[in-house]
Design goal:
Elements: E1 3-7, E2 13-17, H1 26-34, E3 39-44, H2 56-73, E4 81-85, H3 91-108, H4 119-131, H5 133-143, H6 151-158, H7 161-186, H8 191-198, H9 202-214, E5 218-221, E6 226-229
Parallel strand pairs: 3-4
Antiparallel strand pairs: 1-2, 1-3, 5-6
Length: 230
């Protein structure tokens, strides 16, 4: 059993079937939210009962933990994304879980509106995360691997202080730069304007601009006193 169920506020459900929950890419989740889905449900085989030697359901669990941290960072309620593991013969359990999730999503309200996030702001944030997916996958593979395959170990690992530190150090800064690049794609902006739009302090923005300038991504326009894409 594997798949992704995307729930709208109306609790209408659409199901995407895939061979293994481990093949559910973060891009699928972000695309669903970008297309206005209010919740995403992933169903996989029971942990340690995988039909393949890859144990892809653990990859799905890791991806969901990381995606939920990202959602929380950009202002989305992480409860809009849920993963459950069960056998294909547990139809009653599946129905109960889906109904419970549908009820939860309805309580949360429409995507973004329920969190008080502006529609255009949310769209920009989701696009910024999407552009970082290859980098996020690299970080997950090299720095966020759980040594023991058990649900308890994964839950403990992704809520640890060390992972929170790595998340802030390796992903949050990159996400801020990705958002800044999208803003500058529209028009040149000053440090103060970027700070106000993204809710960052000006010292953070200056640090990101200096780093991006050294990499040749942006340039400073002395005449207009603002930054623009290089």
């Amino acid at each position: 059993m594997a798949g992704v169920s995307r729930l709208q506020y109306t609790t209408e459900t659409r199901l995407i079937r895939v061979m293994c929950s481990g093949r559910v890419d973060m891009a699928f989740i972000l695309r669903a939210f970008s297309n206005g889905m209010d919740g995403v449900f992933i169903g996989g085989c029971r942990l340690n009962e995988c039909n393949y030697i890859t144990h892809g359901n653990y990859d799905a669990l890791s991806m969901v933990h990381l995606c939920r941290k990202i959602m929380e960072h950009i202002g989305l309620n992480p409860e809009r994304l849920r993963v459950e593991f069960m056998s294909s013969g547990e139809g009653i359990l599946f129905t109960e879980v889906i109904n419970d999730f549908g009820k939860k999503v309805k309580e949360l309200g429409p995507l973004g509106k329920g969190e008080g996030v502006d529609e255009n702001e949310l769209k920009s944030k989701l696009e910024a995360v999407t552009k970082l997916i290859p980098y996020i996958k690299l970080v997950e593979r090299e720095r966020l691997r759980v040594p023991v395959k058990s649900e308890e170990a994964y839950n403990k690992f992704f809520t640890s202080d060390e992972v929170n530190r790595l998340f802030n150090e390796l992903i949050v800064d990159k996400l801020a730069i990705s958002q800044i690049m999208l803003l500058l794609r529209e028009k040149p902006l000053s440090t103060g304007e970027i700070s106000e739009i993204l809710g960052l302090n000006q010292s953070e923005v200056s640090r990101h601009m200096n780093s991006s300038s050294r990499q040749g991504l942006v340039r400073y326009d002395e005449t207009r006193k603002c930054f623009a894409l290089a």
